[in-house]
Every structure is written in C-alpha cells, then in structure tokens.
Amino acid sequence: MNQIILLILFVLLGYFLGSIPFGYIIAKFKKIDIRKEGSGATGGTNVARTIGFKYGILVGFLDVFKAIIPIYIANMYLTQNWQMALVSISPVIGHIFPVWLNFKGGKGVSTVGATLFMILGLKYSLMFIGLWMLMVLIINIMSLTNLIIVFSLPILFWYKTHSISYLILSFLYIIIIWWAHRENIQRLRQGIEPKLFK
Question: Is residue 196 situated within a structural domain?
Fold first, then answer.
C-alpha cells in the first residue's frame, strides 16, 4: 500500500485512539462527570484529585497505552522519521481535542510520554521519568513541573536521534503542552494552582 495512504490511516488511528477519554469513562463509573470537577481535564491528574490516586494512575497508564498502539504499529510499515513524527503527535492531539467530548480533553502529558518510550527507548524514558518525579517532589505542583520539564524534550530527542523531524516534534510538544495548560498558567500567576501534596 502507498506510504502516504498508510500515513493517513495511522494518523487517523492515532487521533481516534488518542480521543478515547479514559478519565471521563472511569469517572463515569463513579457517577462523576470529571469535566465538571477540578480543572475540568480528563487526564490522570484531575482524576487522581477527584476520585483517588489509584484511579489517576490507571488513567495515566491507559492514556500512555492508547498512544503507544498506533506508534508501535506504524513503525512496522513507515520508514521515514517525519512520518513517525506525524503519527506520534496524532494521539496527543486526539487526547487534548477528543472528538467524543466536543474537543475538550486532557493536557497531553501522558500521551507525549508514549512518544518518549517508543522513540527514545526505555533507558532515556526512565531518565526522563526519574527527573520528572524528582521535580514533582520538589515543586509539588504538577502543572508547573510539566511546563518546565517539557523543555528537556528537544535535548533528549536530538541527543538520541539527531533527527530534524523529531527535533521539530519536540518543539511542537512544547507549544501544545503550554497551550493545553493555559488555564493552569493563569492559576499559577494568581497563586491559586493547587499543590499535589498538602
């Protein structure tokens, strides 16, 4: 099959899988509309704050997994880095702008994590996660941690791949994550963004 057709199919697959709102679905089982609680986001952080830490972890895992699937499959058929970059960003866009929830979803951090694992590999992903966890403990504000650590992505992507396509992807992730956190940024400026640990 033509590479362009395959690319389109995998991008669509990535978007629609990314659009699956696991946070919304799991919260619904607890008879809660997660969009009306906390930050209104459907991701793991808001779920953890609203219905419990274990549910937040579950949502985070599922959000990573749904983004890994299209990247993993596409990697078997697509040969160019720019193609894989497009497939990698599609579940992130789907997660933030899910078609099933009127294009209002999560912040995209967990789905970006899938790209780290698939493109950078286990070693660099664990390094990133370790740094992220340390910053969470020190800063104690999830949104601020995410906004800061995302700037390490261009360094990691370039060091590991030396690919212009993945370097551009990393800068797109910075733009997307900052845009998705615009309400958090406003609360940070006002000094009312909630801390993770009281």
Answer: no
